[in-house]
Amino acid sequence: MTLEESIQIAVEGCGVVLYDIAQLKEHSDNIYRVYIASKDGITLEKCTEVSRMISPILDLDEPMHGKYRLEVSSPGVERRLKKPAHFIGSIGSSVRIKDIATDKIEGVLKDADETSIVITTENGDETLPYDEILAAATYINW
Hints:
Blueprint: H1 3-13, E1 17-26, E2 29-37, H2 44-60, E3 69-73, H3 84-89, E4 94-99, E5 104-112, E6 116-121, E7 124-129, E8 133-138
Parallel strand pairs: 2-3
Antiparallel strand pairs: 1-2, 4-5, 4-8, 5-6, 6-7
């Protein structure tokens, strides 16, 4: 079982979903960030509960060499979309996509499945397979 699979089991045991894991370096700090999601939202108490559940797992299978800080949080309202499940869960949201032709596409995510997405733009619907997407994120028009 991989480290991510172990974390996923622990997270789901807390009643939430593992959204993503990121290993970052901010200034001189190494950060192992675990993003969790739920239809009901994520509270500070839930982040604390998940942190306590996964901390012993990370003690046994250290994710980063040397010292690091564990952070557990929501992916936020403006979130990166990386996996098909992220796109499927974001249908109806405004998205920004950068494709392999380095075009930037903005619109509403109309549909998504395991192979591609459909975005409604000002020029109509546009279908993109995942292998043509370099980066994607939801956004809010404030």
